[in-house]
Known about the structure:
single chain; globular; alpha/beta
Amino acid sequence: MGDLLLVRHGETEWSASGQHTSWTDLPLTTRGEEQAKSLAPLLSGRPFSLALTSPSRRAVRTAELAGVTGAVPEPDLREWDYGAYEGVTTVEIHRTRPTWDLWTDGVPPGPEGHPGESPQETGARADRVLTRVDAALAGGEGDVVLVAHGHFLRVLTARRLGLPPADGRLFQLATGTVSRLSREHGRPVIAEWNVRA
Length: 197
C-alpha cells in the first residue's frame, strides 16, 4: 500500500499576510511559484494512483509547477469556508472576539453561498476525500497526492489519524511543503511533515 502525500499550495498575497482565504481565488506570488517549483524533486519518481487538487487556481498552479501531472480537481478539497471572516486576519478578529478560535468556534456566516463551516463540516468533507484515497491506495498502484490548503489538510490529517477535526490545530502546515502520511503496524502515522526542497 502506498503513502498519502499532502501538498500545501505555494504562498499567496493573503497567506503571506495571514488573511483567511477560502473562496477568494488568489494567484500564487512570485515566491509561491518558486516554492511550488522547488517541490518537483520531492514528488518526481513516485507513481501516483490518484492525484487530486483543490479547484482553486493557487492549488492547480502549485500542482502544475510541482510536476504533478493528471491531477483532477476535487471540490471537497477546497479550503475551509471562512464565512464572514474571509480576507480577515486572526489579529483583526481578536479585536472584537478576543477568545475566538477557528478550531472550536468555527466562523459566522458570510455572503450568500458562503455560510461558513464548523470543524465538523470541514471534517465531513475530509472523510469523503479519505474514502476516495483509501480506494486508490487499496489498488496498490502507487501513492496518492492531494494538493490543497492549510486548514483543510490539517483537518484531513487529524481525520486520517483517527482524531476529531478540531485536532487539526496540532499540525502547523507551511505553504509550499510536502507532508507524507503512511502506515506502521497497520495504523496511520505521520512519516514526514512540512518538508521543503
